[in-house]
Amino acid sequence: DEDEEEEEEEGEEEEEEEEEEEEIQAVVFNPPRDDSKFTFVIHNDSVFSVKSHPIQSNIVASGGGDDCAYVWDLASGTAIHKLSGHKDSVSVLGFSSDGAYLATGALDATVKVWELQTGKELATYEGLGESVEWLKWHPKGNVLVAGDGEGSIWLWNPAMGTSQVFSGHAGAVLCGCFPADGRLICSGGEDGTVRIWSPKTNAAVHNFSNNLHQDAVLCIKSSPTFPLLLTGSADNTSALINLETKKIVGKLSAHTAPVETVAFSPSFPVAITGSLDSKIHIWDLNTLQIRNSCAHNDAVIKVEYIPNQPLFVSCSVDCSVRVWDVRSANCVAEFYGHRNTILDLDVSADGRAIITGSDDKTCRIFATGIA
């Protein structure tokens, strides 16, 4: 009996030590202050992905290492739905363009579609290779595309119950998007290639391989106003591609570490690249030269525009969120609160709130100050 008691005590001590270790891992930075308007603490592991609703600015979704996604109200800070069913970390998620559905992708290599109003699971898509690397909804309809860890791109129409698979990448398809008109799918891979696909013909339209990138393509964005595509690569460069001519417009080379995040300005002829070298460069699309630069104190994870403003937001391994003026590269606001790396950020549809997810297991809301 005494042996059993000792074993139980040892087991309890080990559990307590593990919990303490987890807590220590979750906190690696003591912020100088907490600027957040609200902290969402319901996840019990790292928060990998956050998304703001495209129409209702108070609705947010988050996905984490606890295998769950949540839909919550940033005004009240309450969870509206807990979405469980994945068997591994929910690494990516996104709302449909009409805001009626939420898709979640996980490291268990499944994608689930949920009805936002009820929180009901409508579909589960299996068969993807290894993991779900990214997912995007069509800009005009309820069609969903995702890239997997084994070189395939999957397209689903949940209402019709149809699916298509595009294969060609060697290795994981790390990023992808629909251009603004929604007629094509663009993807970037671990193999360093960018491929353009036609859902109509179920075939590759173009393959950019030679002279594009010497290493994995980490991020890809299409311009909201021009037929342009921007990539970011582990070879420290970005490439600008014309989708109409299928030509490489130019290479953007200035970073000294992988380009982790890219963005187009909706209102100025500029592109933005953010890198693990801690720098953000603002590029002139006409000259392909750097207009301005700014920087964090550590690797840049994500850049995102604030709607209808000459401003963009960035987050970093330095645990800060910064707001920059795209015209001058001046930092107009700096927010602290997170106690570990910020892994994702998004901006609400009305531009008033910045939503972040972190390794510290929390989501935070920062007010942009825009009326």
Helix content range: under 10%
If you compute it from the alpha carbons, what radius of gyration comes out, rounded to the nearest whole angstrom? 21 Å
Mean pLDDT: 93
Largest sheet: 4 strands, antiparallel
How many E-type strands? 32
Structural class: mainly beta
Distance between the termini: 68 Å
| Residue windows where pLDDT falls under 50 for at least 5 positions | none
Order of strands side by side in the largest beta sheet?
A: 1-32-31-30
Global shape: globular
Strand content: over 45%
Report the total helices.
Answer: 1
In short:
With 371 residues, the chain is mostly beta strands.
Describe this entry's structure for a reader.
This protein is mostly beta strands and about 375 residues long. Helices cover about 5% and strands about 50% of the residues. The chain is built from one helix and 32 strands. The chain is globular, with a radius of gyration of 21 Å.
Key words describing this protein structure:
371 residues; mainly beta; 4-stranded antiparallel beta sheet; 7% helix; 49% strand
Layout of helices and strands:
Blueprint: H1 2-26, E1 38-40, E2 47-52, E3 59-64, E4 68-73, E5 78-84, E6 90-95, E7 101-106, E8 111-115, E9 121-125, E10 132-137, E11 144-148, E12 152-157, E13 162-167, E14 173-177, E15 185-189, E16 194-198, E17 203-208, E18 217-222, E19 228-233, E20 237-242, E21 247-253, E22 259-264, E23 270-275, E24 279-284, E25 290-295, E26 300-305, E27 311-316, E28 321-325, E29 331-335, E30 342-347, E31 353-358, E32 363-367
Antiparallel strand pairs: 1-32, 2-3, 3-4, 4-5, 6-7, 7-8, 8-9, 10-11, 11-12, 12-13, 14-15, 15-16, 16-17, 18-19, 19-20, 20-21, 22-23, 23-24, 24-25, 26-27, 27-28, 28-29, 30-31, 31-32
